[in-house]
Amino acid sequence: MIERKLDMSIILINARSSIRIKGTKVVYFDPFKIAEERHDADFIFVTHEHYDHFSPEDIRKVSKEQTILVAPYSMKQVVYEQVGKMVRCAV
User: For residue 5, what pLDDT band results from cuts at 50, 70 and 90?
Assistant: First the structure.
């Protein structure tokens, strides 16, 4: 068995369930209360449509042209209406 240690410095918990993981790619889960505009997200995962999990304002702060946003199919319409022009969506 190979034991590997997780480098916790790559994980940032922003607020509530908002998490940023930076490795070879930058991944956000439910970006919320993002303090600065980083525009560094390769992937954004949104778990559901509550305001503290789906925040278009915060998605704009972390998105860049190549960002892919992944959300539940049930959010398809709201995602396209509020952020669809900003990021590529996989719902």
Answer: low
Higher-confidence position of 3 and 17: 17
The number of beta carbons lying within 10 Å of the beta carbon of residue 61 is: 19
| pLDDT for res 11 | 75
Strand partners, 28: 20, 44
Number of alpha carbons in the 13 Å side-chain half-sphere of residue 18: 17
Cβ neighbours for 64, distance < 8 A, ≥ 6 positions apart? 39, 40, 41
